[in-house]
């Protein structure tokens, strides 16, 4: 057994532990932002797993996927963060004073 | 079981891969154990930059060629650019949507800024409303 494949199996075990923790937080996470963070961790586990696979099989097949995964993670967490803030404002906004049909408020 | 290796680069790659993925496991434990969003974010952002850097460096040592190094640098730079921005957005959303226990914060400079901003917005709204009624 080469030292690289031994390290690869140990690494996949660590990645599985990280994925389990993140999955638990996605299922149980009280806040939407907890789930956003956990999804980011899942994506990083995916990227690291692809990296370990490439190191074990001496290939460069998935290197583009590692780049794309970081971009997708950025888009997803940015969208969720914006959505959360907008939702909070919508929930807490005072009801607008109702003007008549010819009221001054536009 | 005899552990074999071709060159010292295999040993370096093995150490880097194990260290990089260990950070992912640490992030998983942090997500399990930490109490609120910001401390979970503290644990979860470790593998995004350092963990991926160690894993990609391990991949570079495992492949033993210079051809892939620029692509690895691009992959890591993408993560390095996007991770702080998304973490900033998530932290801002955490504060603004009141997912945060104020008792856990020692110094809170943002509260004063938000209070003054909201007061100024309310005054502007009141002035607009008064002008509209005239």
Topology:
The complex is a heterodimer of chains A (106) and B (134).
Chain A: H1 3-28, H2 32-57, H3 63-92
Helix pairs in contact in A: 1-2, 2-3
Chain B: H1 8-33, H2 37-44, H3 46-63, H4 69-96, H5 109-133
Helix pairs in contact in B: 1-2, 1-3, 3-4
Descriptive terms for the model:
heterodimer, A: mainly alpha, Helix Hairpins, 0% strand, flat, B: 134 residues, mainly alpha, elongated
Task: Describe the protein.
Chain A: GO terms for molecular function: sodium:proton antiporter activity. Chain A: Its main location: membrane. Chain A: InterPro entries: MrpF/PhaF-like. The complex is a heterodimer of chains A (106) and B (134). Chain A is mostly helical and 106 residues long. Chain A is built from three helices and no strands. Chain A is flat. The N and C termini of chain A lie far apart (74 Å). Chain A has a single domain, classed as Orthogonal Bundle (Helix Hairpins). The interface between A and B is large, with 59 and 64 residues.
Radius of gyration of chain B: 24 Å
**Structural class determined from secondary elements of chain B:** mainly alpha
Distance between the termini of chain A: 74 Å
The run of helices and strands of chain B is: HHHHH
Q: Helical region count of chain A?
A: 3
What is the global morphology of chain B? elongated
Tally of distinct domains of chain B: 1
* Chain pair sharing the greatest interface: A-B, 59 and 64 residues
Strand content of chain B: under 5%
The topology string of helices and strands of chain A comes to HHH
């Amino acid at each position: 057994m080469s030292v690289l494949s031994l390290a690869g199996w140990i690494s996949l075990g660590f990645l599985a532990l990280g994925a389990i923790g993140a999955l638990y937080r996605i299922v149980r996470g009280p806040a939407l932002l907890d789930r956003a963070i956990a999804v980011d961790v899942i994506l990083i586990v995916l990227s690291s797993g692809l990296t370990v696979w490439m190191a074990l099989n001496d290939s460069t097949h998935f290197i583009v996927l590692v780049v794309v995964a970081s971009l997708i993670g950025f888009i997803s967490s940015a969208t969720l963060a914006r959505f959360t803030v907008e939702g909070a404002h919508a929930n807490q906004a005072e009801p607008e004073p109702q003007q008549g049909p010819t009221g001054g408020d536009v | 079981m005899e552990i074999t290796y071709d060159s010292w680069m295999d040993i370096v790659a093995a150490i880097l891969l194990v260290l990089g993925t260990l950070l992912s496991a640490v992030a998983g434990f942090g997500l399990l154990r930490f109490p609120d969003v910001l401390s979970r974010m503290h644990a979860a952002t470790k593998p995004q930059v350092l963990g991926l850097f160690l894993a990609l460096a391990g991949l570079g040592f495992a492949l033993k060629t210079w051809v892939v190094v620029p692509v690895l640098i691009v992959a890591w730079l993408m993560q390095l650019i996007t991770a702080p921005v998304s973490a900033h957005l998530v932290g801002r959303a955490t504060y603004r949507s009141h997912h945060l226990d104020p008792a856990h914060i020692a110094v809170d400079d943002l509260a004063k800024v938000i209070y003054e901003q909201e007061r100024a917005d309310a005054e502007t709204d009141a002035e607009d409303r008064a002008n509209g009624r005239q």
